[in-house]
Amino acid sequence: MREDDQVTSATRQPQNPASPALSTPLGQDGRPVVRPRLIATDLDGTLLRDDKSVSPRTVAALAAAEKAGVEVFFVTGRPARWMDVVSDHVHGHGLAICGNGAAVVDLHGGPGTHRFVKVRELARENALDAVRLLRDAAPGTVYAVEQTYGFHQEPDYPKLHMETPDELAPAEDILAPDGPGAAEPVLKILAYHPTLDPDAFLTLARVAIGDRARVTRSSPSALLEISGPDVSKASTLALCCAERGISHEEVVAFGDMPNDVEMLTWAGRSYAMGNAHPDVIAAASGRTVANNEDGVAVVIEQLLAEHA
Predict the structure, then answer these.
(1) From the CB of residue 156, how many other CB atoms can be counted at a distance below 10 Å?
(2) In whole angstroms, what is the distance from residue 3 CA to residue 258 CA?
(3) What pLDDT score was predicted for residue 258?
(4) Model-level pTM?
């Protein structure tokens, strides 16, 4: 997620070593065990620099990977309508995983004309349960609802996003069977708390909501993202890979925030950015330098050189 186009970074950023070294899991012969067939990368805080740009070095690395036959998937918490930042770099397949796995989107048509290839919605019954349970556990929580095309929010939900909501109403009304956008799937709920620590809010919400929905976060503020119970970046990426005959061992993944943890754990090789949240560092099998130092490109260049 992004907020007013500000930097989306970890809550707590570890110190980068004086001379950051790339760590890569290698076989006994000193080379990667499996040749990569797919690169899965988060966007904010990972592939994108803090100014939301894709550096020339990263553009070149992505193009080189695709030329070498390695697919590149953007796997992000962003909604499809915020994918203009990478629309020029989707190459042949044109697909991206958006909303933390809630949708697979074909970006070929450009901004505003994207096509939903796969939707993994949050059932309204589960969404209403999550809203109720979290309101009880954390009074003061306010909500927004993300749909395939629509965006609705409560009146007290802060203006965190660079858009005007389609509707201002209580979450319970938005999610009602006859609520606004009733015919449109719900992809996720956004839950914001004005005073709680972000990690504490995440832990509290996961306990309160239980298996009714999946809760994660990608923002430096106390802003949670609530999706269907089985929906994550990892589960949707696994579906996409299975359709292509790609095993998890053949996937290299990159991320920086808690919503990347499952994907980094699932992938055969994974890299936490130099600016990553501590949970991401613990989940990844390797580390690279920070997003502003083109950490994704550094790894891609190394992987391509190893298999040249």
Answers:
(1) 13
(2) 17
(3) 98
(4) 0.87
